[in-house]
Specification:
The complex is a heterodimer of chains A (323) and B (307).
Chain A: H1 2-6, H2 15-20, H3 30-33, H4 40-68, E1 71-72, E2 80-81, H5 85-91, H6 94-127, H7 132-139, H8 146-156, H9 163-170, H10 182-210, H11 214-222, H12 227-255, H13 259-264, H14 276-286, H15 290-322
Antiparallel strand pairs in A: 1-2
Helix pairs in contact in A: 5-15, 6-10, 6-12, 7-10, 8-10, 10-12, 12-15, 14-15
Chain B: H1 2-5, H2 21-48, H3 52-57, H4 70-75, H5 81-86, H6 96-127, H7 133-142, H8 148-161, H9 168-176, H10 180-191, H11 195-203, H12 208-219, H13 221-237, H14 240-245, H15 254-263, H16 272-304
Helix pairs in contact in B: 2-16, 6-9, 6-10, 6-13, 11-12, 13-16, 15-16
Chain lengths: 323, 307
Amino acid sequence: MTVASSSPPSRLSPRDVEGTASKPKPGRKRERDGGGRGDGALAALFIAPAMLGFLVFLLWPTLRGIYLSFTRYNLLTPPEWVGLDNYTRMVNDPIFWDSMKVTVEYVFINIGLQTVSALAIAVLLQRLTQSAVLRGIVLTPYLMSNVVAGIVWLWMLDTQLGIGNEIIAGLGFDRIPFLADETWAIPTIALINVWRHVGYTALLLFAGLQAIPGDMYEAAKVDGASEWRMFWRITMPLLRPVLAVVLIMTVIGSFQVFDTVAVTTNGGPANATNVLQFYIYGSAFGRFQFGYASAMSVALLVVLSAITILQYRLTRAGQTDLG
Amino acid sequence: MTAVTATTTKVRPAPRRKLSLGKVVAWTVMGAMVLITLLPFYWILRTALSSNTALAAHPGDLLPVDLTTGGFERALGLQSTKEAIAEGGSGGGLKFWRYLVNSVIVSTLITVFQILFSAMAAYAFARLRWRGRDKVFGLFLAGLMVPTIFTLLPNFVLIKELGLVDTLLGISLPTMFMTPFAVFFMRQFFMNVPREVEEAALLDGAGKIRIFFRVMLPMASSPVLTLGVLTYITSWNDYFWPLMVSYSDSSRVLTVALAIFRAQTPQTGYDWSGLMAATLIAALPMLVLFGFFARRIVSTISFTGIK
């Protein structure tokens, strides 16, 4: 504690991060310039296109998706109300639970690896060098689509010809069928997506690190603290609120894994990578069960909402912690 | 706040010169990460310039083996079916130029309109006075919480009802008007523009519409650029939605075409050389775009943490 208290934190402003969180801040400016007479007509004009998009492509589909989940619908004939049928079916569908399990497994591996490596990159970028070139390099995989990333790694990890397995074989080990093996497939897909996203996450964390006053580290250094100690006593506690937000955002993102699976394993081998989104897609477009697919989307929405609520709690806890 | 002001690379405090063991380890880790980051890019190029037969014989060579542009020719559909099959391709025709143009149209439509409309709405939320403003903004923000997957199926049904399946407009439409994030991001910026700027323009007799287009929007060029490039990259890379909507060449974008190219496995195994060439064609425009604006984008993300 000596380190942290030797220079009281000048209240790390989480404004940057708060800006990224989806937290409405009601009424902050209401007195100053909301309401009352003013630019009503002009505002309506300015807001009309965005409002149209919001209503037609966001609000209406959300309500409609919930409605469709109570119907049997194959796109050709009108939806037929079936009550909770889709939901009872879902609860009794072992493939659904399997795909939920696979998805959660993916999320854990993906997030674990991604958070640790992103944190490492962010801290190294902050403490070692502030190089913009390095930051740019770290971001390059983010420019690739998941499809491109999937295909490239499919090739690099190919059992017979992939450079990855060439190295493994060169070192005298057995070749690993990364994407064709039931135990390896999900961790491999998780790794591929870590490769693509870690730079972006690292930059978000780097932004959080920038808010920590540099003189805190200087003061700690004078006190003889090691880099390792500074990491645990300064960086981690002060980064916690940012980390919480970034973590939850990436969890929500990784629950929606689809592209990489579609390109590399197509759900196989033996449903080992049949993640929830893939199963939903298959139900809708492979078997034309739009009602059932919608019910599973609602289940996913519920899971993600629970995570979002958790996000609020975590961030709030983080803020009081800093107080 | 030394760290914050240090936007450029020239931050090397003099007293920290000694090379400790920890520093060597740290730089090694950093080096390894850069290598893992960049190796796949090199491997794409190396494979794309190799021939399939040579690849099978020399899988581990670091340089292109049996240098050829055959992969690119196959990807761009310049080879005859016979030639393509002889070189390990599937012979299935793909019109990458067409898909490239489709991708450009879709990404441009989405980026231009989404940013314009989102900025207009953001201005109304940040700077205009009207009844119910905060409530409407709260509603928009709540939209951030709806996961994209959830709206995809109903949106597909809607696009089908509108008769826009398999059109470029159908692919673009859902994100063309706004995203909650874009509105939110631009509003943050407009809120921070000093009131005096607007008041000065008002005194000069400019109307608010004029102020928005002539004063506020130009002032916002930097956030607009960052948001624009990120939106462009996101829509360029999108796969799930275009996959749902497009069925034929007329609306096929690069990501979807690439996945199809990959699925057309020839008898002899994958056409890796052609696949990597196609991958490069699909990815190159974004790399070039990023190359132009990298510094600005990287700093914007680094210092504001936009998501």
